[in-house]
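Give me structure tokens for this 311-residue protein.
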Amino acid sequence: MEKYCFGVDVGGTTIKLGLFTVEGELLEKWEIPTRTENQSEAVLPDVAGAVLGKMKEKGIEKEQVTGVGFGVPGPVTAEGIIVMNANLGWRDKHVAKELEELTGLPCKGGNDVKTAGLGELWKGGAGSYKDAVFITLGTGVAAAIIVDGKVILGSKGAAGEVGHIKVDGEIEEACGCGGAGCAEQFASAAGIVRMAKELLARSDRPSLLREGEVTAKSVFDAVKAGDEIAKEVAEKFGHYLGYSLAATAAVVDPEAFIIGGGVSKAGEILIEYVQKYYKKYVWPGCRDKKFVLAKLGNDAGIYGAASYVKM
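Here you go.
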């Protein structure tokens, strides 16, 4: 009898779902909208309806499903409880228990970034690494710290906040966390744009970045074209992220860093800048670590979610 599992990645706008074999073959993926009104009370019933509807469509019995895995934004405890999520309006919500009651299936999950890291470990860029740090560079900077094939959660599910390592004591602009000087303020997409605009405003030097909208992508495209201002931004980006990862390595000693998220689409040139400063700041015993790009893109979340319940 064929066995299946589901992976669910809950985002602020859409919920991505995947039907998998327990071996990790993605059979089908689809999306439904995230209905956030009334403190997102419809989200879990919508997920349950989507899963049960797909089972009915495919003629899959409950005995054939090993479970439903999920990834959600915000800290999640080992028991599947969301401590707090502002975007969804959830606080101390037992997602695993509620979803089990709605579906009649085993459910297990965790934070969305940590879940995506598991996806890369299972079927993506992490390959055979059992000890790795998955970094996602997007609106913010976050990480999944994987030790012996398992994601480290911390006491309240907040382990891996690499983006909030303090890297600059001079910046006055506040980070989204309420502090200032966080790595996220320099290594996220918004941080890259801020640094580029500051450099452009300070001088009238020619730059490709003056020709259109400044984005993280346009900055790294300009780097590839040899633009001097863009290269200065990339140096600062590499400095701050490399410093943060050097600090992380000294604590967890991973085999590799897997870099994902929208900013990572810049490709290998991004890794060159990060690795340069990582080697400058890291403790010598952790110097020779692998740096690789994530491979699963937007599907990392559903793969990682499925991996929670694949057996």
